[in-house]
């Protein structure tokens, strides 16, 4: 198996005023929180959004592992729908001392390039900033961060920076060059 060099960039916002919202796209695009922890639905989103960009770390998770993660206080999944069809999602995961990670964010390939991503990222980031209002016992958010990498879409970094995220770390690591798993094996060309 061959390896590839993957650059990972970590970005952050340190105040709610850092957020620079995108305009809402035209049409019937709605963002709704998936309030019932559903391993099946979350795995569908993960595999469908990340299938062509080699998201593989959660593919081996058991149903119980998915449920355990989704039932942690403060973990939220916000889903963009275009005319009722899931188009993408943002997953928020609280850490210690008011730090919230946008752990996963992206759109299903068929919905990219339609201005949904900037709107979803804006909305998800705003929900990271007000997370403690929905979860008594969580610390007030003081920092929102995320990471992106050279395997992500070509517009990912630009979208994050246009929403007010600032770079704070860069790492380059060797990773196994795996085939794109798709939502099912072989769904996307390698």
From TrEMBL:
Residues 29-190 form the N-acetyltransferase domain. It comes from the Bacteria. Keywords: Transferase. GO terms for molecular function: acyltransferase activity, transferring groups other than amino-acyl groups. Pfam families: Acetyltransf_1. SUPFAM superfamilies: Acyl-CoA N-acyltransferases (Nat). This is GNAT family N-acetyltransferase. It comes from Streptomyces coelicoflavus. The lineage of its organism: Bacteria, Bacillati, Actinomycetota, Actinomycetes, Kitasatosporales.
